[in-house]
Design a protein that fits this description.
Strand content: under 5%
Largest sheet: none
Number of strands: 0
Structural class: mainly alpha
Length: 153
């Protein structure tokens, strides 16, 4: 794990440098590397660092999705789900709820266009949202999301 984490950190550093030189060419790769780093940091219990990386990834994907929604909204939804998980890790549940809810909204829209591709990803986001709702004590809302999830098969 230490080697993977070091490699992911190195990738982030390299992409950060490349983005400084050619932002339009490397921003999407940089955002992806930030998400990878966030996941690895979370796995080793470095929650604050994971949250920072996830937040930076979301910010980049938001910019990209504004410019090219069709190309980057799927990645934005993935990044938002990742951010929701990282926020949950540090007990910032209200913010986690907002990020998870936004990921679900985007993925529901994507499912309408390409159900076979995006339904599994929607299921993942619904699961994240239901978990956060339960942690917030919103059991009825969590059960409604879980029922939707069960209906997706």
């Amino acid at each position: 794990m230490a080697e993977a984490l070091a490699d992911a950190g190195e990738a982030v550093d390299l992409y950060r440098e490349l983005v400084g030189q050619q932002p339009e060419t490397f921003r999407d790769d940089f955002a992806g590397s930030l998400n990878n780093l966030a996941s690895l940091l979370s796995e080793v219990g470095r929650s604050a660092e994971a949250l920072a990386a996830a937040g930076e990834g979301v910010a980049l994907y938001r910019e990209l999705a504004k410019q090219q929604p069709e190309a980057y909204r799927p990645a934005l939804a993935m990044s938002l789900n990742n951010l929701a998980l990282r926020l949950r890790d540090v007990d910032r549940l209200a913010e986690a709820f907002e990020a998870a809810k936004e990921a679900v909204v985007i993925r529901r829209e994507l499912v309408k266009k390409r159900p076979a591709v995006f339904q599994p990803k929607l299921k993942h986001s619904l699961d994240t949202l239901a978990t956060i709702l339960r942690q917030l004590g919103k059991i009825g809302e969590a059960e409604a999301i879980e029922a939707e999830l069960a209906g997706l098969g």
